[in-house]
């Protein structure tokens, strides 16, 4: 087979066989297929899509590019959650310890920032010492000890996805249903979960903003899960404005700790509890999602989730004292206040603009090898529907140097719109599919 021929076939919108996809993916891992050829292939798929059979084969090949984990030795239900990506989307850090505190094992393999959206691994690594790089042997040991483990892809688990994921981030090929499906499912199938809850974002801040395509993705994730014998639920949630009040790696960890210590941040609290409730339901610890949601609220209020989070930090070599000191706010040197320039009501807070602004501030990467400033980010003081007076503080920007602060502020121009009339409230949970 010839890599150029396969690229040309997909460029010309022909379906690929399992053997052709297998050759291309395995060739990329071995070095026979180059980085620029994979980039061209991803762009061809982006424009011409893949049919259901091709998507299934791509998922299966990426899954078996490495080892898979057998967790049958755990006498516990095993359920995970995956988000398709959003701005300020930090629920994994709350629901993983919360659901584990209910007696459900949570084997979570997460990713880094993708496009304008943040990544769970980058957030966890804002905790000094926190290790997300473990072998399969250690993965099993940690989940046996704590009932939950939070790691990234390794050379052993879905290595094809690990490399392709990073390349998609910098080649503008993120928003593609077969690539998203194969990426998510190869990780989730490799980790040994029995059930998966998908948080599929809809809106301008999502990796797949179009509503119809997001619903198509949700259905594809559920159908692919079932083909591999897994239980699945998809929650469709709004991503027209950032989730919660904080954007940035440490800032988002900080907000999660606030929630786990009794704070009620309405949209983050609600979405976390619905997703947790769905996981608790799939794990057989509740008779419905709504009953599971009630249990989730109780686990936050009695600090079971926070205690389990501290245990995770301790076991994965993070600095527990740094977490316990969360209320002593850690901020970079430079700050800029964004204020209202007129009276009225916030009618828009365009999530995608906040996401790209956060990258300019230092929260994400423009190139694969870019470093991250863990303390940079944005704190929102107003959300959509809130009333403002001229001069009121809307948000604060934080960065490690003035140039990044200037770039972040510039990228945020036009993201916040104020109208004279109050807008309708946001419908956070759009639908639930199973």
List the uncertain runs: none
For the report, how would you describe the main beta sheet?
A: 4 strands, mixed
CATH architecture of the largest domain: 3-Layer(aba) Sandwich
Q: Per CATH, what is the topology of the largest domain?
A: Pyrimidine Nucleoside Phosphorylase, Chain A, domain 2
Q: In percent terms, what proportion of residues is strand?
A: 15-25%
Sequence of secondary-structure elements: HHHHEHEHHEHHEHEEHHHHHEEHEEEHEE
Shape: globular
Compute the average pLDDT: 94
Number of strands: 13
At the first level of CATH, what is the class of the largest domain? Alpha Beta
Can you tell me the CATH superfamily of the largest domain? Nucleoside phosphorylase/phosphoribosyltransferase catalytic domain
Distance between the termini: 40 Å
Whole-number radius of gyration?
21 Å
Instruction: State the secondary-structure class.
Output: alpha/beta
Strand order in the sheet with the most strands: 1-4-5-13
Structural features:
Aldehyde Oxidoreductase, domain 3; globular; 17 helices; Transferase, Pyrimidine Nucleoside Phosphorylase, Chain A, domain 3; four-stranded antiparallel sheet; alpha/beta; 13 strands
Describe the 3D structure.
The protein has three domains: 46 residues, Transferase, Pyrimidine Nucleoside Phosphorylase, Chain A, domain 3 (Up-down Bundle); 246 residues, Nucleoside phosphorylase/phosphoribosyltransferase catalytic domain (Pyrimidine Nucleoside Phosphorylase, Chain A, domain 2, 3-Layer(aba) Sandwich), CATH 3.40.1030.10; 86 residues, Pyrimidine nucleoside phosphorylase-like, C-terminal domain (Aldehyde Oxidoreductase, domain 3), CATH 3.90.1170. The chain is of the alpha/beta class and 434 residues long. Helix 5 packs across helix 12. Strand 4, helix 10 and strand 5 form a beta-alpha-beta unit. Helices cover 45% and strands 15% of the residues. It is built from 17 helices and 13 strands. The strands form four sheets. The chain has a four-stranded mixed sheet with strand order 1-4-5-13, with helices on both faces. Strands 6-9-11-7 form a four-stranded antiparallel sheet, sandwiched between helices.
């Amino acid at each position: 087979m010839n890599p150029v021929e396969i690229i040309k076939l997909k460029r010309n919108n022909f379906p690929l066989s399992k053997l052709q996809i297998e050759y291309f993916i395995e060739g990329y891992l071995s070095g026979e297929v180059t980085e620029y050829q994979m980039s061209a292939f991803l762009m061809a798929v982006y424009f011409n899509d893949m049919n259901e059979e091709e998507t299934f084969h791509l998922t299966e090949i990426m899954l078996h590019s490495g080892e898979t984990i057998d967790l049958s030795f755990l006498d516990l239900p095993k359920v995970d959650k995956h988000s398709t990506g959003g701005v300020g989307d930090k629920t994994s850090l709350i629901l993983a310890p919360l659901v584990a505190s209910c007696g459900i094992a949570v084997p979570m393999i997460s990713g880094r920032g993708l496009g304008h959206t943040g990544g769970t691994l980058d957030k966890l690594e804002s905790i000094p010492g926190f290790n997300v790089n473990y072998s399969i042997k250690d993965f099993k040991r940690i989940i046996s000890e704590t009932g939950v483990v939070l790691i990234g892809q390794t050379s052993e688990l879905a290595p094809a996805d690990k490399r392709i994921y990073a390349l998609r981030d910098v080649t503008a090929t993120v928003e593609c249903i077969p690539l998203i499906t194969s990426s998510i499912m190869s990780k989730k199938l490799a980790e040994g979960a029995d059930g998966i809850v998908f948080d599929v974002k809809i809106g301008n801040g999502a990796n797949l903003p179009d509503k119809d395509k997001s619903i198509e993705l949700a259905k594809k994730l559920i159908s692919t899960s079932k083909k591999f014998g897994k239980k699945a639920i998809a929650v469709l949630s709004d991503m027209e404005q950032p989730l919660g009040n904080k954007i940035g790696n440490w800032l988002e960890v900080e907000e999660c700790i606030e929630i786990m210590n009794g704070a009620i941040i309405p949209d983050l609290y609600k979405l976390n509890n619905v997703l947790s409730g769905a996981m608790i339901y799939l794990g057989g610890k509740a008779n419905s999602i709504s009953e599971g949601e009630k249990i989730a609220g109780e686990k936050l209020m009695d600090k079971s989730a926070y205690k389990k989070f501290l245990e995770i930090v301790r076991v994965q070599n993070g600095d527990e004292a740094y977490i316990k000191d969360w209320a002593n706010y850690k901020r970079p040197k430079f700050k800029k206040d964004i204020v209202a320039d007129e009276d009225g009501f916030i009618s828009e807070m365009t999530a995608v603009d906040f996401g790209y602004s956060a990258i300019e501030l230092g929260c994400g990467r423009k190139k694969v090898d870019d470093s991250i400033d863990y303390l940079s980010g944005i704190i929102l003081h107003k959300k959509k529907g809130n009333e403002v007076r001229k001069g009121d503080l809307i948000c604060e920007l934080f960065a490690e140097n003035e140039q990044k602060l200037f770039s972040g502020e510039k990228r945020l121009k036009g993201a916040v719109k104020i109208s004279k009339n109050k807008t309708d409230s946001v419908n956070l949970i759009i639908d639930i599919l199973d």
